Amino acid sequence: MSLKPEQLKQHCEIIIGSRRIKNKIVLLCEGEGGIWDTEGRPSPQSYSKMEQMPDSNFYKACVPKLWSQYRPEFFNCGDRKDVLNTYFALSKLHDENKDKSYLSLEKLFAIVDVDLQTQNITKQYSYGFSDTEAIFCNLYTKIKINEENAKQHRIWVTGLIHKEAYFFIPEIQSVFDTFSTLYSSNSLVLREIYLRMADAIINDYDLKSNLSKVSNRISHCSGLDCTAIDKLRDSWKEQFQNAQNDTEENELILALLTFKKAKYYWNQIQPPIDWTSSVETFKDQLLLEIGRFYSEQSNDIKYHIPCFFKILRQFA
To answer: Do residues 35 and 174 both lie within one domain?
Structure first.
């Protein structure tokens, strides 16, 4: 549920009035919790815990280790529409109340999931891109960040369908192994997860309604047939199971993760049998370790999140 106008205004007033954002990058992201108390009112006490919320917490964990001073401040803002509305409302409110604002507009950024549905950007905002899909097409080439284009973006979209998709790239297998992670009572093997995802394509009605968009995103994978949902499933599995090398296989995996939602599979993950705390605690620790993986990566443009922070750091 999107923020009401008065809620949005209060939300933005709390952000620009926060001393902790002074001279720092402010990064708006999706995620519930931390904004409103149980009565639906903005809670300053909750804002102080904002970076402990799942989305903020993950992105915070991804910040490069070498970035030790003036690290970004993260704010969960609700759904994609809320994030975009917050971005533009903050800009307007800052211009109207510069003497009461700790915000530096040149340091304001947002990141949202690309998803399958397109989120429009209201024309009155006069932003350089009309919607999230237009941002995606300009930011990414063959699912790699176009670094030259990226410099002009203040609103980013993920290159994979959702934040959770970044938990399932092949390199994360070692993290799952370290934590003895289980899936369906067995050790989690990402290759098996990919095949489960592919088999589930046929039942994904959201995907069926957006096949043309998917076709555009993965057009560099010439062997994939996007003319029908069953053909996409069959062609992906055939290509994947007959990949000649890791490069071909990884390209297909990333293509899959641009259109197949991963949140369901993340929700099915379980801790090892001897785990004594809650499942939520296990996943929190797993998420932070995945974030640490990204924080240690080079500036290779195949890793979207580290590349994002590399560009952000220029504004610190």
So the answer is: no
**Do residues 212 and 301 make contact, with C-beta atoms less than 8 angstroms apart?**
no
- Single-letter amino acid code for the residue at 229: I
131 - beta bridge partners? 120
Handedness of CA 171, 173, 179, 184 (dihedral sign): positive
The domain total for the chain is: 2
Residues 191 and 138 in one domain: no
- Residues 72, 143: one domain? yes
pLDDT in tens, 210-248: 999 999 999 999 999 999 999 999 999 999 999 999 999
* CA separation for the pair 230, 208 (Å, rounded): 9
- Please check whether residues 45 and 123 belong to one and the same domain: yes
Do 50 and 34 touch, CB atoms closer than 8 A? yes
pLDDT, one tens digit per residue, over 281-296 is 999 999 999 999 999 9
Q: Give the per-residue SS3 of 84-153.
A: HHHHHHHHHHHHHCHHHCCCCHHHEEEEECCCCCCCECCHHHCCCCCEHHHHHHHHEECCEECHHHHCCC
